[in-house]
Design a protein that fits this description.
The protein starts with a strand and ends with a helix. An 8-stranded mixed sheet has the order 1-2-4-3-5-6-7-8, sandwiched between helices. α5 crosses α6 (178-191). It has helices spanning 53-58, 88-102, 115-127, 144-156, 160-172, 178-191, 199-210, 213-218, 258-267, 286-301, and strands spanning 3-12, 15-24, 34-37, 62-66, 108-113, 132-138, 246-251, 271-276. β5, α3 and β6 form a beta-alpha-beta unit. It is α/β, with parallel strands linked by helices.
Length: 302
């Protein structure tokens, strides 16, 4: 399949950054492209590249990009930016800038995973883009409070000694300890992605470890303890205004439990909800990958 990569200038105030993107397929084909919003915030796009198969299934272009501050869109001085720089509005503007640069504002679909689903929901419910034809939210939430509630429930379900270890290290700021990392590894195994991780997953998380600024500033030390700029974020009061047909997905063992997904289902007017048997990454795990891609393809083709 044909691939094209590029960068688009993204102006913020007096500064200019660059957003790296990759197009799988042909934007001039006339088919509405699918733009993929990666998670994190601050986890590079690489782990989502299995979604390139949707190019073949739907005969549509698929666009991946790295949000600024991570992966191929890292910039010099990223760690020196004040926390006020890192807001959801920044990433909405970056998405708008990319859509305009690609010239697809009259017809496109969005698929957001985890944080990317939150970004997609915020964009759709606040900007109401007329060209948004389909919205897919995989493992997302309409508020950070609901995300904390979901991951908190899962944390409580861990063995008491493991839960206490995680909570103690987060409280003491020693999340680099091997003991803490071991506990988090068990949580990720149960609720994020089984091991061994696919290479694309390792690539994305290695990118975050090299440049942790975005995640640590917007989220905090972990999925359980939200102290960053997203702590009070919510679009619960706006999601009923989303007009695009919307597909929701999560997994039975997903860190995005039903408490995260159900408000979308209850409030978005044109919505479907598909649940998978495994964790947070249905497009990576062999038990769910084929069904996930088919469910998304059927939705995009509808």
């Amino acid at each position: 399949m044909a691939e094209v990569t590029g960068k688009v200038d993204f102006k913020v105030g007096d500064d200019t950054y660059q957003t790296w993107y990759k197009i799988v397929g042909d934007l001039t084909s006339g088919a509405h492209p699918l733009i993929v919003l990666h998670g994190g915030p601050g986890v590079s796009h690489d782990y989502m590249t299995p979604l390139a198969e949707l190019h073949n299934k739907c005969n549509i272009p698929v666009v991946f990009y790295d949000q600024i501050g991570i992966g191929k869109s890292v910039f010099e001085g990223v760690a020196d930016k004040p926390k006020e720089f890192w807001t959801i509005d920044l990433f909405v503007k970056e998405l708008e800038n990319l859509v305009a640069h690609l010239g697809v504002q009259n017809g496109f679909a969005l698929l957001g995973h985890s944080w990317g689903g939150m970004l997609g929901a915020h964009y759709a419910s606040h900007k109401h883009p007329v060209g948004l034809k389909h919205l897919v939210i995989t493992g997302g939430a309409p508020s950070m409070a609901l995300w904390e509630q979901s991951t908190g429930q899962l944390l409580k379900a861990l063995p008491a000694n493991m839960r206490e270890t995680i909570e103690r290290h987060e409280k003491e700021g020693t999340t680099d300890s091997p003991e803490y990392q071991q506990g988090m590894g068990i949580f990720y195994e149960k609720h994020v992605c089984k091991t061994p991780w696919p290479k694309v997953m390792e690539t994305s998380f290695a990118a975050m470890m090299r440049h942790p600024t975005v995640y640590h500033t917007m989220i905090g030390p972990s999925e359980f303890t939200i102290t960053g700029t997203l702590k009070s974020w919510s679009c619960l009061d706006q999601i009923h205004t989303i007009t695009a047909p919307t597909l929701l997905t999560n997994g039975v063992m997903d860190e995005a439990q039903d408490v995260c997904v159900s408000p979308f289902f209850q409030r978005i007017p044109h919505v479907k909800w598909a649940q998978f048997s495994q964790r947070h990454m249905p497009f990576l795990e062999e038990e769910n990958q084929a069904r996930y891609l088919q469910v998304v393809a059927d939705f995009l083709n509808s």
